[in-house]
Design goal:
Distance between the termini: 33 Å
CATH topology: Helix Hairpins
Number of domains: 1
Largest sheet: none
Structural class: mainly alpha
Order of helices and strands: HHH
Helix content: over 70%
Number of helices: 3
CATH superfamily: MazG-like
Shape: globular
Length: 97
């Protein structure tokens, strides 16, 4: 499945509710799912981690739908097969946490 196909699936399944929830409401749900991902990452349960990663992606797609943003288009533009900062693949940036 392509990103655009997944985003369309989220639109078909949830857009009416997402539209009612609005930008901020969908963003809050996305942040909530990121919090759930943080919790399961600490616990280390691989199956729950996979579920939460999927939920984060789904809520990002739902937020993009409400914002009328084509995720596939913007991702390809920002990341055209190389690092947007150093222009290398693999990235040669020396980022540290």
């Amino acid at each position: 499945m392509e990103i655009r196909e997944f985003q369309q699936l989220m639109h078909d399944l949830y857009f009416e509710n997402d539209k009612k929830r609005g930008r901020l409401g969908n963003f809050i749900w996305l942040v909530s799912e990121i919090g759930e991902l943080a919790r399961v990452l600490r616990d280390g349960n691989e199956e729950k981690i996979k579920e939460e990663v999927a939920d984060v992606f789904a809520w990002l797609a739902s937020l993009a739908n409400v914002l009328n943003i084509d995720l596939e288009e913007v991702v390809k533009k920002k990341y055209p097969g190389k690092c947007p900062r150093c222009k290398n693949n693999p990235c040669k940036c020396n980022f540290r946490l």
